[in-house]
Design goal:
It contains 18 helices and no strands. The protein is mostly helical. Helix 5 runs antiparallel to helix 14 and helix 5 crosses helix 15 (364-377).
């Protein structure tokens, strides 16, 4: 699945690059035809693949019921994936757009049919990835042209916790029903290509994301119902090997029926993704090679950085006599720009995307608590009363009583606030049948000693320090 992301990303990049006004590019496009000019289908392949992978990863965690903490955990994980590189590209390219708007006199700030608006309201929409939601067309909605699909996918992520309730209850349906449902969801865009040859109509972006994402999720449900025998894997491998040929033939021969008609092959995307998920040979093995898997990991960064780099190149073609379209230098620089997009994707993945994702994911426990705390603060939920269990006094004084009451109160408060889901692991230095008692035993004995001249609050403080030592040092193996 990760290797397939690399294929989809490269397809989209080549599609956008074919707009470069160079004779060499035009010659390549004439030779390959719809294999390049239909590259916008790579976005739809992304949508289907995303629906499949998200359902595979999160359906069982979100599907049984709508829970605030599980939903927060899911959305935070997706935000950690989307935002770091996106914010970097948005602000760097946004500065370029502002510079063009300030210095230029022709009113053209980006190579888009509809020019994006540069104001505070639009900036805030771009910042939180909702810039597309109130536009019937994606043209001019995003400062970085290709990020309209990121805004659309963010909408799908926000809707998925609710959709998972339905999908989870559909998992018992027959494979045929689920497969037909996936194909049926692809029917609107298939008909758009067959009837007009174009995927662009009012709110087409919404149809593309909801239908593509939903079809991918249903394809996953169908796959998980299959019996994964050797026969099934061989059949899936054969389908995965034949489908790319069918897709290429459909794109080429579809042009004979009319411009863009070959885009109807979009109907087969859920079948391709499902077949590759089950296959164990052929194209599946090719996509699983380290190079393509690494390319899949770079795909998000590549998708984000290629438009800004292309726009700088196109601007240079317009303004520099040295890069006139007929010159060899313009073509050489064009090839270098393509290679530079890959290099920029590597750098963003290595130094921005992965480090930021890991750092932000470390904040997940705090983010999980936010919905419950916000609901309590707004009065939507009421804090559960904390009841302390009865603790009998020890025979040798008040310390054991105070310590037990203190531990019970902390645990009850943690459960009430949703902070304690799992028991604390046993300290690594605790005694066992195969290991003599160590510092943990001595510490436990020290806690049980009574100092008659000290108050109960002092004893509680001592116990809290003991808890800190046990949890922070002993459990960590220090």
């Amino acid at each position: 699945m990760t290797g397939l992301r690399a294929v989809a990303a490269v397809w989209v990049v080549l599609f956008h690059f074919h707009f470069t006004p160079l004779p060499g590019v035009a010659g390549v496009v004439d030779a390959l035809g719809p294999l390049i000019t239909s590259g916008a289908l790579g976005v739809d392949l992304f949508f289907v693949l995303s629906g499949f992978v998200i359902a595979y990863t999160y359906l069982d965690k979100l599907g049984p019921s709508l829970r605030a903490r599980a939903t927060a955990r899911f959305l935070w994980a997706r935000a950690c994936r989307l935002w770091p590189v996106y914010l970097l590209v948005l602000h760097v390219f946004g500065a370029w757009l502002i510079l063009r708007a300030t210095v230029g006199a022709d009113g053209v700030i980006a190579f888009q049919t509809t020019q994006p608006a540069l104001d505070v309201g639009q900036y805030l929409q771009q910042l939180v990835l909702v810039q597309l939601w109130d536009d019937a067309y994606f043209d001019g909605a995003s400062w970085v042209g290709s990020t309209w699909s990121i805004s659309a996918e963010w909408l799908a992520y926000l809707l998925f916790p609710v959709a998972a309730l339905v999908l989870h209850r559909m998992r018992g349906l027959p494979v045929v029903v689920l497969a037909c449902g996936a194909l049926l969801l692809m029917a609107p865009m298939t008909w758009a290509y067959l009837s007009t040859g174009s995927p662009y109509f009012p709110w087409s972006w919404l149809v593309r994301i909801l239908c593509g994402f939903g079809a991918g999720a249903l394809a996953y449900l169908a796959v998980r119902k299959l019996r994964w025998t050797s026969t099934t894997r061989r059949a899936a491998s054969a389908i995965a090997a034949v489908l790319p040929i069918v897709l290429v033939a459909g794109l080429l021969f579809g042009e004979l029926a009319g411009p863009g008609r070959g885009g109807a092959v979009i109907l087969l995307f859920p079948v391709l993704v499902a077949a590759l998920a089950v296959a164990d040979r052929g194209p599946a093995m090719l996509l699983a090679t380290p190079a393509l898997v690494y390319g899949g990991r770079l795909s998000y960064g590549l998708y984000l950085v290629h438009i800004p780099l292309f726009e700088l190149y196109w601007f240079a073609l317009e303004r520099s006599p040295l890069l006139a379209p007929h010159t060899a230098l313009a073509h050489v620089v064009g090839v270098q720009v393509l290679l530079l997009t890959v290099g920029a994707a590597v750098l963003t993945y290595r130094f921005v995307e992965e480090p930021s994702r890991r750092s932000l994911r470390a904040l997940t426990p705090a983010v999980e608590r936010l919905p419950v705390r916000a609901a309590i603060a707004l009065g939507i939920l009421r804090a559960r009363p904390v009841t302390l269990p009865e603790v009998a006094a020890s025979s040798d004084g008040a310390l054991a009583t105070a310590a037990a009451r203190f531990a019970a109160k902390r645990q009850a408060l943690a459960r009430a606030g949703g902070w304690l889901d799992e028991p604390v692991s046993e300290p690594k230095h605790a005694a066992s049948p195969m290991r003599p008692a160590t510092l943990a035993t001595a510490l436990a004995k020290a806690e049980c000693r009574r100092a008659a001249h000290r108050s109960e609050l002092d004893l509680w403080a001592d116990y809290e320090r003991a808890e800190y030592i046990r949890g922070g040092y002993l459990a960590a193996g220090n």
